[in-house]
Amino acid sequence: EAGVAQSPRYKIIEKRQSVAFWCNPISGHATLYWYQQILGQGPKLLIQFQNNGVVDDSQLPKDRFSAERLKGVDSTLKIQPAKLEDSAVYLCASSLDETGGRELFFGEGSRLTVL
Amino acid sequence: DAKTTQPTSMDCAEGRAANLPCNHSTISGNEYVYWYRQIHSQGPQYIIHGLKNNETNEMASLIITEDRKSSTLILPHATLRDTAVYYCIVRGTGGSYIPTFGRGTSLIVHP
Predict the structure, then answer these.
(1) Is residue A113 classed exposed, middle or buried when 0-12, 13-18 and 19+ CB atoms within 10 A define those classes?
(2) For the segment A25-56, what is each residue's pLDDT rounded down to a tens digit?
(3) CA spacing 20 to 30 A to B17: which of A15, A28, A42, B79?
(4) Which of A45, A97, A103 sits opposite B46 (nearest CB)?
């Protein structure tokens, strides 16, 4: 079974530039999550989708971050314009159960460095 | 959702059992205890979960106290590859549950 795919693995940009990350969840998984992990900290949830609807985006900085999940499958996370403090690993995860009762499967993450 | 408390770091000798504690004193009746681990430069990996009873799989054992206010993840024979950050989270099974990770426990297995 293929895992959660993310790209790119690494990205370096200057502040005020834009960047987009892509995630392809495990086939059939209803719920998709984007987490931000700053060095030395645990993953922080940015947004949670159930199929193609948003369950929670309370911690997403909406003035610069946006995310969408097309047709309830792939998802993109965009940052525009980027700030220095956005340097982090962006993790995508998916889970099978629509009720959230199953384990999360994570991708390897996309490491963003903002200069 | 219940919050968890874990020690910041622990160490263990290779071949010995690693016992990682987690406190979740505000857990409610329908919330499961999940454990994940994160090896350097990788995404978190699911290990095991439980509700009331102790659980065991090929990776680890999970011991949940009778009052469910704490649990212990046991790696019976730790190897160097078990060096990672271990996260304990609690999660329900209904509604808009938000899986929340803390800082976890950094486990170092030494030769």
Answers:
(1) middle
(2) 999 898 999 999 999 999 999 999 988 899 88
(3) A42
(4) A103
